[in-house]
Amino acid sequence: MENKSNNSGFKAAIVILSLLLLGSIGYIYKLTTDNKEAINTISTITTEKETLTGELKAKIAEYDLMIADNTALKDELQAEQTKMIELLDQVEKSKGDVDSMAKYKASYFKLKREMDNLVAENKLLKKENVTLNSSLDSTKAVLDNAKKFNDTLLVQKEGLTKTIEKGSKLAILNLKVLAVKERSSGKQIETDKAGRADKLKVSFLIAENQIAKTGNREYYVQIIDSKNNILGEKKTIPTGDKTLTYSFISTIKYENKTVQVNEEVADKDFTAGTYFVNVFDNNSELLSKTSFNLK
């Protein structure tokens, strides 16, 4: 009986030890499994942290390019970039727990959506700027061509004005001077001797010109004798920074038709030699000249 009792106790002890061994094995397995899961979780969070950090840095760099390239959205781009930089700082300082990483990833995706919207707006603005620049270039080309055309018209107008001005000037033709001796009867006898002459007869034609202005015209006639003296009235008028001394003024009423002008200058002491005769308009422009000799 005693031997049988001992065997029963021994068996009971073996069973208990077996149960304890199984429990230990199970506990060790659970610890091992939990440890592997923890290691895997840590590895996954570390990878996610590194990936999120890399993506944040890349997006921040993209913002730098867009800010440098776009002035219209500069304030909005800088504000969103600042949010990215702040999130990157938080991620880098975090201990990498699951809840924090989930929160950071959610924040990142929200910021990424905002960035995608700004990228789309930036592309649209670029496209509009290209269209606007193209339109401005076309407008500039049109304006340049219009300016060239206007400049050409202006040159043509100036040329036409000068042509008209030139064409409207009256020509002095057949300027002649005769020395005469006037008898008491009034009869004038032509002479080429200075001692006999007592008058000089000046004549010229004002040519017909249909585009010239009508009205009174003044011509200043200058007669210079062989001693360089000016005969006649010897009056002087200013001509710019110079002066003009003339022998007489011939005032003519011009009506676009040929006009014959005849004037006389009397003198008692004509000298022998060469005489010069000049005709000026009221702008002191020389219109005609001639010379003659007295013996």
Describe this structure in words.
The chain is an alpha+beta fold. It has 2 domains: about 1-125, no CATH class; about 170-295, Immunoglobulin-like (Sandwich), CATH 2.60.40.10. The chain is about 55% helix and about 25% strand. The protein is built from 3 helices and 10 strands, in the order H-H-H-E-E-E-E-E-E-E-E-E-E. The protein has helices spanning about 1-70, 75-95, 100-170; strands spanning about 170-180, 190, 200-205, 215-225, 235-240, 240-245, 250-255, 260-265, 275-280, 285-295. It has a 4-stranded antiparallel β-sheet with strand order 2-1-3-8, with no helix packed on it. It has a 4-stranded antiparallel β-sheet with strand order 7-4-9-10, with no helix packed on it. Helix 1 (about 1-70) runs antiparallel to helix 2, helix 1 packs parallel to helix 3 (about 100-170) and helix 2 packs antiparallel against helix 3. It is rod-shaped. The chain starts with a helix and ends with a strand. The mean pLDDT is about 80.
